[in-house]
Amino acid sequence: MSTRADLTEAEVRALGATLGLAIAPDDLTEVTHRLNAFVDALAPLADLPAGGPEPVPAPVDPDRAG
Amino acid sequence: MTAMSAMGDDLAFLSAAGLARLVRLRQFSPVDLVNMYLARIERLDKSLGAFISVCAEEARAAAREAERALTRGGKGGPLHGVPFAVKDQFDAAGMPTTAGSRVLADNVAAADATVVARLKAAGAILVGKLNMSEFALGGTVDFPFGQPRNPWKLDRHPGGSSGGSGVAAAAALSAFALGEDTGGSIRGPAAYCGVVGIRATWGRVSRHGCVPASWSLDVAGPLARTVEDCAMVLGVIAGEDPADPLTSRQPVPDYRAALTGDVRGLRIGVVQELMDGGTTPEVRAAVEAAAGRLRGLGAVVEPVSLPTLPLAGAAFMAVCDPEAAASHQRWLRERPQDYDRATRRRLYTASLLPAVLHHQATRARARIRREVLDALGRHDLLLSPAASIPAPPIAREAEPVTSKEVAAKRFFGHRSHSTPASLAGVPALSVPCGFSSEGLPLGMQLAGRPFDEATVLRAAHAYEQATDWHTRRPPLS
């Protein structure tokens, strides 16, 4: 069970400002809901067993390996 | 009455392979074919919204040149004189490449994308550029160049992001269409519109001249009315491209030669996690019937479990969206008003996702890929629905997101049928496998081993030839 608190609209606006993104009031509510839902949806990924294959983005063509 | 008018719609719905044959035999002129498709676009596209731009004069000029080449005794390429259209994500020299966005409305391409150049070199004739979800991300609410509509029911979505490509192929507005698949953007429209669409192995097809959605996931590919057409077009566009350093040097086989109709002994795993988890009963029944048909053709069909697949949708978005957002930062800062609001909000969200979560998603991706490849070590192909539902109503996507719970349900609540193959980088295809009770097409997905598109196409072709789903036409007027 996650103990993370949801981000507020003010916090999301501030995060956007760090990238120079001026998130308009009309967008802010939905972006906040989306971001909180996104983080929740990704929580199970943290529970996957450690180790395993390295996260290369795709199968490496054998003739290009190395 | 000319032979052309006598054939009427039958000619327009003929396969690209069939049209190429008729042109070679001088039964029809490339000029006739181009004019026929331009007339269909003029007549039908006001209601379908498949095209962003049409290059009528350039197409007619190319057709006249193709005709002259035949008169001189030239044999032409495998697609000589065959009209096609391309998702407006790919450059075509002298035409705008909008990627479905006002942001790029004035972006005129100086040269052809490699895939467009290869199709032209094979003799195909470009008639126009196709509508798409903005920047190939899906979820567009307000399409700046008009709402694409499903030809089977105009109030239904054609799928995204290659929606116009699905519509153009299904409504015979061109002989075939080119799309791009990041997380299902070829297979989804193919399934919803009742045509065939293949995403090749990642790296199999050049992305040079393609506006990227997500660099580690994007693959170009055809949407067409038959498997043979997909095989033919893929054979033309696939292969190493010095302009795209991520293309593979693996040789490209003759995909059409692989269409033997023989699937005896082929081992096909039915992915249980994609048969369950939100798949509607009629989609499941159609895919089960298709699996039975393949079994009847001699394939060994058995269930297979990929337990990490339920995480694929979220992992996909955490890989794809930050990659996309990274390339949009300048426009998001300087021209946010030029984006559709859904695209803008999605890109804002992805911009703010913690990097740790993105990295965890890449690790999940590696695990999903391992599961997929392990399963493909035991089976030649993996079978599943291409989509969990038939084409949904268009209006549903415009509803406001009023809470985290609504956002979770809307964007992360559905099991993704198409993203596992994308994350794994393996080839995957959607082929028609039935119709819903409302008369909407249903698609079956076949995924194969890396660089083994030939087996994917062979099985799909054998199934297609044993059924008549691909012969049905949408009710156009």
Could you walk me through the main structural features you see in this protein, from its secondary elements to its overall organization?
The complex is a heterodimer of chains A (66) and B (477). Chain A is 48% helix and 0% strand. Chain A is mainly α. The model of chain A has no long low-confidence stretch (mean pLDDT 84). With 477 residues, chain B is of the alpha/beta class. In chain B, strands 1-3-2-4-6-5-10-11-9-7-8 form an 11-stranded mixed β-sheet, with helices on both faces. In chain B, helix 6 (114-121) links the parallel strand 2 and strand 3 (125-130). In chain B, helix 12 (312-326) crosses helix 14 (341-351). Chain B is globular. The mean pLDDT of chain B is 95. Chains A and B meet through helix 1 and helix 2 of A and helix 12, helix 13, helix 14, helix 15 and helix 16 of B.
The number of helical runs of chain A is 2
Helix content of chain A: 40-55%
Structural class of chain B: alpha/beta
SSE order of chain A: HH
Give the arrangement of secondary structure elements.
The complex is a heterodimer of chains A (66) and B (477).
Chain A: H1 9-18, H2 25-46
Chain B: H1 3-7, H2 9-12, H3 16-24, H4 30-48, E1 51-54, H5 56-71, E2 83-87, H6 114-121, E3 125-130, H7 163-170, E4 176-181, H8 187-193, E5 196-199, E6 219-224, H9 227-237, E7 267-271, H10 272-275, H11 281-296, E8 300-304, H12 312-326, H13 329-334, H14 341-351, H15 355-378, E9 381-385, H16 404-412, H17 419-424, E10 428-435, E11 441-448, H18 453-465
Parallel strand pairs in B: 2-3, 2-4, 7-8, 7-9
Antiparallel strand pairs in B: 1-3, 4-6, 5-6, 5-10, 9-11, 10-11
